[in-house]
Amino acid sequence: MNRRTFMALSASSPFFLNMDAYAKEVPASVWKSIESVQEVLLPATEQMPSAKNVNALSFLIVNSTSPYFDQHDLELLIEGASIFNQRFSHFFHENAESQYRIVELASEDTYLEQWLSRLIYYTIEAMFGDPIYGGNTEEIGWKSVLH
Hints:
By secondary structure, this protein is mainly α. It is 61% helix and 0% strand. The radius of gyration is 15 Å and the shape is globular. It starts with a helix and ends with a helix.
């Protein structure tokens, strides 16, 4: 079964509509961190939707369950979020400008820079990928660039 078929079947199955089924092995704090940092990395602008607008977290959760998802990437995403939480636990209590500065500071660490790079990669994939994979809600990413 290829990735596209897996995702199409997953999206149409009532079992897979429950997000807890996807995230049960990954701590909720990891997904919360990823979602928050995604929003800092790709916030909404006048021309572009935000990570949340394109359903980037859901895209990542759904796709990370695919047998074709790079397990090294999944380990990096989980471990990076855990390290980020430990080093920057105050992140969630800060305003947007302070959160941006915290992400900049995190990018100075080699490991967290790799983590941020993967987050950007998957967030952009969610923004411009085929909606069948769970992102690009209502083709909002495509429409934002007039595709």
